[in-house]
Amino acid sequence: MTEEKKPKNTLVRNLFIVAVLMFGFGYALVPLYNVLCDITGLNGKTENGAAKEIAYDIDLTREVTVEFITSLNESTPMIFNTETKFLKVHPGEYHTVNFYAENKTDKAMIARAIPSISPGIAAEFFKKIQCFCFTEQKFMPHEGKTMPVKFVIEPKLPEKYKTVTLSYTFFDNTDRSVN
Amino acid sequence: MKKKTQLLAGLVLGFLGIGAAQADYQLNLMRGVTKISNDLYDLHMLILWICVFIGLAVFGAMFYSIYHHRKSKGHKAAQFHENTTVEIIWTIIPTLILVGMAIPATKTLMELDDVQDSDMTIKVTGWQWKWEYEYLDTGIHFFSSLDEASNKARQVNSGIDPKTVPNYLLNVDNPLVVPTKKKIRFVFTAADVLHSWWVPDLGWKKDTIPGFINEAWTSVDEPGTYRGQCTELCGKDHGFMPIVVIAMEQPEYDAWVKKTQEAAAKGADLSDQSKADLIAKGAAVYNKNCATCHLESGAGVAGAFPAITGSPVVIGDLQAQINLVLNGKGAMPAFGKMLNASELAQVITYTRNALGNSVGDEVQPKAIQELLPQPAKTQSSETVKKLTETSADLTMDELLTEGEAVYNTSCASCHMGDGAGLAGTFPAIKGSNVVTGNIDTQIDLMINGKGMMPAFGKMLNPTEFAAVVTYTRNKLGNSVGDSVQPAKIQALLNGQG
Amino acid sequence: MSAVVAEHDEHEHHDHGPMKGWLRWIITTNHKDIGTLYLVFSLAMFFVGGAMAMVIRAELFEPGMQFVEPQFFNSMTTMHALVMVFGAVMPAFVGLANWMIPLMIGAPDMALPRMNNMSFWLLVAGVLLLASTLFMEGGAPAGGWTLYPPLVLQTGKALPFAIFSVHLLGVSSIMGAINIIATIFNMRAPAMTLMKMPLFVWTWLITAFLLIAIMPVFAGAVTMLLTDRFFNTSFFDAAGGGDPVLYQHIFWFFGHPEVYVMILPTFGVASTIIPVFARKPLFGYSSMVYATASIAFLSFIVWAHHMFTVGMPIAGELYFMYATMLIAIPTGVKVFNWTATMWKGAMTFETPMLFSISFVVLFTLGGFTGLMMSIAPVDFQYHDTYFIVAHFHYTLVPASIFILMAAGYYWLPKWTGNMYNEKIGQLHFWLSVISVNILFFPQHFLGLAGMPRRIPDYAIQFADWNMISSIGGFIFGLSQLLFLYIVIDTIRGGTGEKVTDEVWEEASKHGLEWTLPSPPPYHTFTTPPVIVPSEHH
Asked: How many inter-chain contacts (B to C, CB under 8 Å) are there?
């Protein structure tokens, strides 16, 4: 009798295992999504780390306009602006632009700048060698900082992209930072 | 009665995709005022007609069968239950129809996606519950929210008939103005939650996402006023953050830009106001900006939005309240960005002396103005480009010109405009041992500061830094004759890590 | 089959019929009792969710805010959707499955009777927990049933409760699905091969696999919301390196199959009822099975068509557009098959048939608008307007709900042994079918004309159609009270006419349940039936 019950029990057990695995699959979608973003430039996510400074063959035949925009998330009491609104660059050339951020409060603040690039496809070809967005930034009360970003657009950028926008949004992470 | 007939006709015609032209309501998608919106309209109609055609065929067969193959008519049931040929046919034909739809759809999508070669860029930021527009080329920047008339009428049981309000819920205080026949690129982001920016006449909507940017483009053919709304649920007042786009011919648009820039340069009126004035005007500011959450009575919403009446912040220290209002906290946005000094002074004074509070004090616009972020220095983009490319070397003249400007804003307050300093407190630049000595020592001192001298390495960018060092060594009565380039400063700053 | 019989020996009360008293309904493990519980509960929730819809339509009756605050309006739209999806439609189909699958495949009960009881009571707990959030500080969730962050994280005290309720509902659905799969795989009567199973059983088998695959993913997504809010993770928070759009991808990976969970069993019921009243075998049985399976498969690879406007790269937009358009093919096959089943039949139009025919027509209409919205560029106009509201209500109300009504009329005589009042039944049908179109058809116009969804108040040019839609809504809502009356009346004796085992003319050709007495005894098929009536040969 118990032996005859086995197929049913195995089936039920397997189905429960599938359900548990699917729960895990939901979590697996998180890294999968990030991989997908890297490949497709979904959402203009950029790599969160410094790129190696390689010497490219500068493509002098074309210019790409790089726009810089800054935003503050709600209730991030800062001043944040860019000294350069836009720059015409040749792919393969290194450039540095400065951003200025200032803590408007009487307390120390930890803030994080999130980069985003549009069009998303261009994110893959936009390499940052130096950026304040790689780590959280600590600001003393009323401290202002000028922060350089050094970048290059790879000559591999498809010809049809003539304008690329780099955006930074500062978020006040003081309450949630692990540092 | 006529209306009823019209409605009925509308229902029938609308089903067939033919708008009843005489009706004052709309049944179908609008053609819009851009090439894309027209393409989309055609695509929409094509698919609609295909669906109508398939629908007529299928439902026709079904109703024929329902009428003729009834038991009550004595119809005997056939017993067939499959027919491979028929089944293959009705799999293949729809597939072909779908391919036929996919081709024009793909073409339009590619066109919609092509934001390159635009003439200007506008940054759009979604807020709970207003829109922020920033023209990247001209620097024009403003917030746009529901107009006052609609806002009054839309309160629960306001007693105002919405039909008496012109463009009810589709009107704003500051519309977005754009030139016609120019390719305008939009960059979208959000400050709090998701929103979506939609003007049907332009043919698309785009989500705005906090932390990320999206882009889209348009080119408006016809001057006119086009209205839309937020289409992504964004909280309580999702239905009350409309969009108004006014398209103007280029000359009119240029005039608008000039006027707006002049008004912005003039800034807010900072003259003192009487307390009664502050309170009276503060009420209007409050109702427009604060009442959505804290309610017009100031009672707030338990669990979500704190009451103003009796609030410890409002009846407490004035400076603390000003800081909170200017900088925001949690769900409370930073109003320092949205209101001008005069409005801020009015609304703060209002909350402290009305809505059941009576602290008795007041604040004047001037005091607020000092706390507001100052507009960034405006430089022509050419200089900006040159000055920020640290790889490019600057000439002595360029260094000196820029250096003078930096000196006057960053150093002159202590060392004086002529470099004479203040005896006993701030050393003179003129003839200073540091300035006329080894250049590296001077740079080191300026990067790291010493005593009362702040660390300018964090405050100035390499270009400004190099310029001001060069300036001090060659002007203000000194003539060392050497100079330093931004690249070197950059290297030193980087080395510092 | 002896295994099954052996298991039943363990419960001695099975030999004596149902327990006396109310405790029977709490501890019952009988599939018919549990089926009844599910059906009654879902009918109750249908009215609760319906009442919320009435609040929505009342507020939208005229421009201006008359009755509720905007925040409460948002709670209503959110809760209406959650209650209808998780409290009404899904449990109703589980109830039908409980009652009918064992009868249709010749099994004595569900494979796991005690788990069956547990999944029902977890459902009740989940829905009650969800409903309790209405009374919490800060109000019920108001960010839409999709629970998109960051907005949903602004919910007040209710957030963890709503999330926990989703967990309970998920566990309940998963257990129900496992039970159904185990029953179908292990407990079919001899000679009931897979390709002889009634289509209702087939569609439920496929639905059950969908549920097992997607409910855990949804549970995962809401758990991430929970940890984002309370434990400092940042799956969806850009500030910590997360991405709010990621939630939408995970949600719709669940969400798109989820909407098919509500429609696939509908297909099964329609394929069961139409042949009976056409007095013809179902046309294209095997293509129906394959079409259902293809639709289920496609549902996993089209999710991002709900997100055409979030800013995907063009390759993504194109892929999701093409994949979505493909769904039209198997769906078309189904509609053609139903039409061909009616073709050259000898049709009669009792209430179940009326509801089934209107299902085919109105579902097809919803399918057409679905096809229109699959065209990504045009969806840039349709997205998040009343056009989509009209679309999915056409696929849910005159499709899923109508078929549930049809199933009710079709099987009530079997369940109770009494005949419902055909006149009132037909009145209920005609009122419903007319009012549902007055309710939802104008919403197409509203959407095309530019009215966004989920807004509590609107511009004047939308006033006329909104008023018409609201009137349709009120008539539709009130008409459903007729259904409640009919159900109660039938249970209490109906027309007084005792129905035969077959109930419907020659129904026993179409399903094993019609070989049993009406009402069937508490325990049926304790020995498996030998002859399996051939449905399609």
From this structure: 309
